[in-house]
Amino acid sequence: MSSCLRLCTAASCRSRGAMALLQSSDRPVKEVGCLGPCSEGPLAAEGAQLLSLKPAEGEPLAPSLGAALAGSRAISADDPFLKLQRRLVLARCGVVDPGCIDDALAQGAYQQLQAVLAANNPSAVIDTVRRSGLRGRGGAGYPTGLKWATVAAMPSDQKVVVCNADEGDPGAFMDRTLMEGDPHTLLEGMAIAAFAVGAAQGFIYIRAEYPLAIERLRRAIAAAEARGWLGTAIGGSRFSFGIELRVGAGAYVCGEETALIHSIEGRRGVPRPRPPYPAEHGVFGLPTLINNVETFGNIPPLLRLGVEAYGAGTKVFSLTGHVQRSGVLEVPMGTPLRTIVETMGGGAPPGRQIKAVQTGGPSGGCIPASALNTPVDYDSLKALGTIMGSGGMVVMDDTTNMVDIAAFFIAFSREESCGKCIPCRSGTVQLEMLLRKLLERRASAADLTQLEALCHTVADASLCGLGQSAPKPVLSTLRHFRGDYLELLEPGEVVR
Ligand SMILES: Cc1cc2nc3c(=O)[nH]c(=O)nc-3n(C[C@H](O)[C@H](O)[C@H](O)COP(=O)(O)O)c2cc1C
Description:
Elements: E1 5-8, H1 11-15, H2 18-23, E2 29-32, E3 43-46, E4 49-52, H3 65-70, E5 73-75, H4 80-83, H5 101-106, H6 111-119, H7 122-132, H8 144-153, E6 160-165, H9 174-181, H10 183-197, E7 201-207, H11 211-226, E8 242-248, H12 257-264, E9 288-292, H13 293-305, H14 307-310, E10 314-321, E11 327-332, H15 337-344, E12 354-359, E13 365-368, H16 378-383, E14 392-397, H17 402-416, H18 422-439, H19 445-461, H20 465-469, H21 472-480, H22 482-486
Parallel strand pairs: 1-2, 6-7, 6-9, 7-8, 10-14
Antiparallel strand pairs: 1-3, 3-4, 4-5, 10-11, 12-13, 12-14
The structure holds flavin mononucleotide.
């Protein structure tokens, strides 16, 4: 690890004045991506030492980097936020300059691609991914190796690899962190996937709200092409693979894979029924592999470590809300929720108690504080009525009314519904109306019964994942926080 001063100039530290500090510096500074505990930002690092340049409460940002460093606070390497992480996907994030391919190459970028090309055995790569048990990090948790094998088996001489970088869940910024901090890991993961399934064309579908990630990816793609890690005859082999960026126009539903495909094709971003799945009929009708940013980000470390040392892998989370320390962290898969929220995040603000943790965004649910010992993995969270989702984790303290939260997420889904199918288009409107009625204390017990029944209708009858999972925040809060609903019923209402 380089011992020069590294300054985080990713989105969160930028919003706290990192660029002003960079410009005021009279010493060489390396720009890096996210260092983790964003709430302590702006953040800098020297060797293994992490420094918070955050001014004291109520004070302005220091006038120069020198002054900020003079008043900085060291965050110990033993701090649980740092110590309990296992950084595989984010290993180079905060270490390399995302704008400098030489730096990334010096830290091992493209070595796994080189090894894969030298071995020239695509099915061995797929076998490794399959044996690792890696599941998609975009939300649904589909086995990655199985998806790769399906695309690889399609009898077509033209195939496409797509990276889903739409990241639209409120409170989620894990994918942005990797793209801003270490874009070459993503590009390498995509190139390895393309080699494994036999694709020559790649797309990264990224939301327009991520201008810095877009800029850094564009630069990284150009640099990788110039060095022969993308383009024709990669690494001197017969494998060719190019990546184009496609910038979304801000629709949440375009993160759904069939809507995303339509959007890449230049059509309106609305979903269609599956089957056919993208693996058979994807971009321009070609067999298409779609994976999430973090899923691709797992590939180089998995191949570097091998299946055994990789173990159960990791999950990257963005921790926000009523928590003392927020930011991005990568922990071993199965880490208890309590460890993430209380030990690493410092728990609720002083004098407050944690009431719930929301995972999975508008498709997920709220976990009550009584279940904080749950290990965070796909199946444990599903059993609690929520999903792992892509990794947004929003902590709520005891000042939160869970009906309010349910109404917030339903309003989000109603706003983002593309309107193609009626259960989602009308159902989310009706669900929101019932929730508002409750919040205004005009609802009867019959309204509550109707709310629950309508949740099931919308979930069962909607065309795509947006409508199918939109009722989850309502159902999970009804399940774990029914008291919050009952308290809001009209006075005198009899409830079962
Ligand atoms: C409404 C909706 C939004 C979605 N948004 C995203 C997203 O922003 N990023 C993502 O990777 N997957 C998203 N997904 C899941 C994708 O459809 C798809 O399952 C995923 O990209 C597959 O990649 P994975 O197997 O690596 O998880 C969304 C799904 C739905 C229904």
